[in-house]
Design a protein that fits this description.
The chain is an alpha/beta fold. It is built from 14 helices and 18 strands.
Amino acid sequence: MGLGAIFAAEALLPEGWAENVLIELGPQGEIAAVKAGAAPGGADRAAGPVIPGMPNLHSHAFQRAMAGLTEQTGTEEGAGDDSFWTWRKLMYGFVGRLQPEQVEAIAGQLYVEMLKSGYTAVAEFHYLHHDPAGAPYGDLAEMSERVVAAAKATGIGLTLLPVLYGAGGFGGKPATEGQRRFLNDPQRFLELIGLLRGRHGADPQIRIGIAPHSLRAATPEMLDAAVAGLRAQDPTAPIHIHIAEQTKEVEDCLAWSGQRPVEWLLAHQPVDQHWCLVHATHMTESETQALAASGAVAGLCPTTEANLGDGFFPAAAFFAAQGRFGIGSDSHISVSPIEELRWLEYGQRLVTRRRNVLLPRDGSGRNRSGGHVGAALYRAALEGGALAAGRPLGRIAPGARADLVVLDPDAPLLLGRSGDTLLDSLVFAGNQNPVRDVFVGGRQLVEAGHHIAEHDVLARFRGAMKALLD
């Protein structure tokens, strides 16, 4: 398949499933036109049903190299004291060893895996800025550019979110030695944002936003300065922040401010549809309603949240309030949009002891998928993920990026399925990857399950891992 046009016998459009769909591609990787009930003409024929590619709204790329290395207890006595906070200490030790070329190699391997699983864009929450001693590189954007290079080499769309990290706890507590590679003051941070916008702002495959790490790592003054500085450069750029992931975080925020994290943020910042609150696991009913009403996206990462013992997001109440959400693979112990969506629903089934719990609804309160839970979750995650990425994604429609996933019609779990039942089966019926082909910005990157650069990328990743583990 090449640039020009793609013909799909079946495709998921914003208004629903359609047959005999001609997707015409524009010169900058956008969709120029979509025609249902069309003849194929000279277009390349998709080998199976076509759906929009999924945006991954939360990624710490380097952590892919840690996957599986923290699944042991920290004491001879066994489990009991391990938590997010003990995991974080291990992560700090790992991150202290990473060199720029290793970060690029790890990100490249991760992005190939994302593309092969059906993620076509990623929001990279990037906080590894400086050398192992904590000093800036000669190029302030050295580590950010390594992420950009990995995205360009693999073809994935990128929303780069450099992280503002300036403190070690609520109230501006001093940072620890393990955090020294993350630290910037607002002035140097905004200089970094300006550099990246100048270099990549015109690239339709890249969007630059910011990520104040958390309320414990960015003081109110730092947060104000970063948001104001970004808005002066780009009034609609995405802003992502970790929030209310752990109960200790909530307790510490209450002790510092008298308010819970989500409560504090909504009261002190102009949170709107350009914000993404990552995790937001521990909220009261009033916080849940307020977050939904703000228009912000809840960034949910169920496999990582399970791996770290975070808890369950109040999804049923949030969805009932028409809250927006998207999914991310975060620490990358799993790189599968299917598994994130499945865990999201299954977690709620375990909590409520009911089935088919989560049915995201539109502005009129109706579920657009006729009760099909898998289809509803996939559609809603497309919409929320695109909003959080700040790019025209998640839709097979004119003006959107031509980010397309072709499903394998011979995959056993999809045989005999069509329409929303096909999406239900995609989410809930097995663990084999049914993604056959993937296009990003109109360029085919995955064909018959193989990425065009996977062998070279894997060789670089293998070298990086050998050096790190030796």
